[in-house]
Amino acid sequence: MSNRKKIKTANFTREKDDSFHIEGGNRGYMTTADTLVTYDIQGVQDREDILFSESKSVYSRYASDRQTLRLDNFIVPFWGEGTNLYPQEVYSVVSENKLLPGILDKLIKYLFGKGLMIYTMETVGEGADQKEVRVPYQNKKVKKQIMDWLNSWSEKGYPHYWEYLKNVITDYYYVSSRSTQFHYSRSRRLNNRNNLPIEALTYVGAEEIRLATDKDITNRILRNEDCKHVILGDWLNLSGTKYEVFNRFSDADPFKYNTAISFDFDKTFTKKLYAYNTWFKPLKEYLKAQYLTPKYLNSYLKNALNAHVHVSIPGIWYEQFKAILQEICSDNIAPGEGVAIVKEFRGVKLFDDNGVPFAYSELMMDQLIACELRRITKMMSGEGKNQGKMYATINWDGHPWEFDKMPGDFKEYFDTVIKYSDHADKVLLANMGVSSSLISVDANGKLANQGAEAWYNYLLYVTTIAMDEWFVLRDMIRGIHLNFPEAKADGAMAGFAIDIPSKLRDTTESERPQNTATNNL
Length: 521
Hints:
Elements (H helix, E strand, L loop, with lengths): L7 E2 L9 E4 L4 E5 L3 E7 L5 H6 L5 H4 L6 E4 L2 E4 L8 H9 L5 H13 L3 E9 L6 E6 L3 H16 L5 H15 L1 E8 L13 E6 L5 E4 L16 E4 L11 E4 L11 E7 L14 H24 L3 E7 L1 H19 L10 E2 L2 E2 L8 E2 L2 H19 L21 E4 L4 H23 L18 H12 L3 H18 L1 H5 L3 E4 L16 H4 L5
Parallel strand pairs: 1-18, 4-15
Antiparallel strand pairs: 2-3, 3-4, 5-6, 7-8, 7-20, 9-10, 9-14, 11-12, 12-13, 15-19, 16-17
């Protein structure tokens, strides 16, 4: 029989009305009802740098490309760096930002324009002035059949095709991907005009879809072409929920399976699988800064009239008590003859409620520091007999604890935080590649109203969305061409109806926006 004991890591606890925060690993702060104390440990390297130093290398950044999950007979490559939750991570950060959700929402609406249009390309002009322009599809009979098919989706119990389009555009701008489920009719292989092979298309969310392969590939990294299946599931709690496996849609044999799901993504340089948008990782720290700015300001206001004290903890003190805790935990787990069991040390709990000893963890030192600071704050503030007394510590080799009162320079602090937030706004707008005038926000995050500038920038923007439009509508075009071969033969394509507004000075009174804004809706 094994003599090994069940060892647990220490659970961090804190007293009521106290708030102890660790930032970085060798610094943090504690707040009570009337005191704010910050601290740093001198001479001790940041534990964060130690724990995550490997992630800074090029090799480790690509380690996630080889991370996979096995589900029955399928191998699922991870989407994200170690978490398989890239879409969820993007949303969690974006949703907390003051500007980015609005920017993405504007991009979605700009691309959607006035909705879907069926068109063909036509050459106009002569000689050097020749150019190709979009014209509405002229085959009225087939065009009507296409629109009847699209409008029938909701009648058959599927979401309206506008809802489908809005969702796939949203996924594209958030995670550069698009997924669609093709719902086939039973007689999909028969050439029957009265029974279209594809009943409808429905959106599949990026948060639930992952690539999958049934190939046993171990000698190289998985590639997009290896993954002939997709799996839908709750990747936050896969063990507690069911998942579904689907065949991946193939242009070579679109009707091979009873149902199929497409999963296409905008290729990311050096990546074989999945897409990683171009703005999330470069902006991640700036997005955090924008999120934390109001928290910093509110926290400062909350504690502005309290005692502000910074404590410098000598590194040698930290190392001494770390060694003591490690030795005590080791003796508790495997006590030698004549060695006493220590259940608590300076406020740090060393056993759980069942009498099982904890193994040493860095959280114990965090708890020890919290207990020391708690003793300090009780003596330095509040009502009671200890108020105003001096807190004494042991001097380890001439390295005492140092206490410095922080100056209350409100203006300098606020200006610094706000300036950094403004800088983050500028970086965000520049990285998204969209003029601030188009989203009605200037470089300082304030409302902008430059009409002429917005008009010219909108023209430039419209000329750059052809690839976005093609990617988003690729499945729609597939469905139209498979259902209506005559439309494919005519060169009919699906696009978005986008009108270029005229400048006010070039319009008559009847052509002004207040009279034309709802036309053609």
